[in-house]
Amino acid sequence: MTEMRIDVVSIFPSYLAPLGLSLLGRARADGLVELNIHDLRDFTHDRHRTVDDTPYGGGAGMVMMPEPWGAALDHILASDPDATPTMVVPTPSGTRFTQADAERLAGRPWLVFGCGRYEGIDQRVIDHYARRMSVEEVSIGDYVLNGGEVAAMVIIEAVARVIPGFVGNPESLSEESHSTRTGGPLLEYPIYTKPPTWRGLDVPDVLFSGHHANVSRWRRDEALRRTASRRPDLLAAAAGELSDRDRQALGESDHGCTGPR
Ligand code: 6GU
Question: 179-184 contacts: CB < 8 A, separation 24 or more?
Fold first, then answer.
């Protein structure tokens, strides 16, 4: 397994300090990931270390200037002239980042994240580097953050944990919500551990039955019902893969719980 290299460029490098902790910290310690964080202001040349200016055409806010970005990215690229990274630019105007993207990016040897602040980065930065490498503008959801740093951390964590060798128990990857490695993308069923009764709430009886087929069927039914109620969009996408038994669990006509189980 060759190590993945990740570089992150930001005007708030200390925002990215959590990447040195916990899961990702372990991946770094295990030699699975090399992480380099760069301060964009180190690539400015004026006294005030300016990185932004007013937008051409007018409008609110400030735009990140192309020169510091060009200097920072050229510096990173020059560190390994024979390799070509994939560039990821977190932005609320990007394509939606999904588990499939995490799994795809986990196969790349080198990722460079450009974290914008203010209203965003001058488009020519993206257009210039897109001539030499794959550049992906991605959004982590339909809401607005102040900058790309937190989004980059979300993406890096999602990517790093699917690198082979990263998670202790690889089986735990295939059962989780949104996995693209098995069946359809349903939400996960509810889970329980000891004690059997807690504050008057009981663990469902079927989980004590030792009847594996019944447990599996109950879990799939719960996953189906949960997905129908919380993420009808996912259920619609999986509609072609549902069995008659699955449809029965969903109560087809009324989408409620019909009959005993
Ligand atoms: Cl990737 N960046 C910012 N600034 N806001 C976001 C986002 C990204 N994804 C959702 N909101």
Answer: 179/99, 180/99, 180/100, 180/103, 181/103, 183/241, 184/237, 184/238, 184/241, 184/242
- Using the atom order of ligand 1, give the atom closest to the CA of residue 155: 1
Residue with tokens 């390799």: 83
Instruction: Write the residue with the smallest CA distance to atom 7 of ligand 1.
Output: 92
pLDDT grade for 182, boundaries at 50, 70 and 90: very low
Q: How far is the CA of 58 from the centre of ligand 1 (A)?
A: 22
CB of 147 closer than 6 A to ligand 1? yes
Residue nearest atom 2 of ligand 1, based on CA coordinates? 91
State the first-to-last Cα distance of the chain, in angstroms, to the nearest integer.
Answer: 47
Is the distance from CB of 62 to CB of 119 less than 8 angstroms? yes
Q: Of 149, 138, 214, give the one whose Cα is nearest residue 9.
A: 149
52 contacts 65 by C-beta, under 8 angstroms: yes
Which residue from 118, 145, 157 has its CB within 8 A of the most atoms of ligand 1, so it is best to mutate?
145
pTM above 0.85, yes or no: yes
Strand partners, 63: 53
